[in-house]
Amino acid sequence: MWKYGKQEVFRAERLYTAQNYQSFLETFRHSFPDYVYSCPFRQKEIISAPLDSVECVYVPRKCLQHLSRLQKRDDLQEATLDLVELLSNESRISMEDFGVHGSIALDMHTPKSDIDLVVYGAQNFRRLEVSISKLVGNGVLSYVSKNRIDAARRYKGKYMEKLFMYNAVRELEEIKSKYGMFKYFSLAHVKFCCKVKDDTEAMFRPAIYRVENYEPANKTSMLVEDKVPRLVTSMIGCYRNVACKGDKIRVSGMLECVENLETGQIYHQVVVGTAKSEEEYIWPL
Q: Helix, strand or coil for residue 22?
């Protein structure tokens, strides 16, 4: 049984603490000032590469296609293609809808590297989840869980003694916003429990959960009705797909007021991964 408590902290989360982020910013201000951008819509400094400094973009779909065309492949590259073919056949998802990223895509891998896969589209991701579960049940694959979040996400496994991970990437038609369309105002740090109303964008990054039944955890998190968040958005990758529709979650994050600059519509959300607090998370209950 997994134990819930403040002592259950993962190394991945440490990278997103407010103190570390400020340290990163200070380093970039000093050594790489062109990579620090003052965003007028989020009203904060962010680390961002200028477009004219980008020499190459590694697209997972194209990286997999490149891998498949190689005449000479090593064992890990062969295992990657075999795994994608297995998943494609089992799920009936086209090979064209898979991609590879990480060290294999960059040709920087070693024999002990992980296989980092993506599947394009929310529906494909849900189909792949079911197929992987069946393959695990049949003993072809196995899940790997090092902590409570891994167990909830079930995104990590083993194939022929090789560790693999899979995540989702939006198709172009699934991108519903653009830079400059919204303006964000940070209001207060809140802690609460809620129910997931919709999980159709929970597998992406940022992970978006539409929620209901807001239950404040303390007095400072008590909100008037028009400020109750309808979305929980995680910028931290490890909180993708940690809960499904109907599940209850515990959240700690920054309450934001969001203004649609095109329509004037205003709503509220809670963001996990703002680097403004040392304690931001989404816990499945």
A: helix
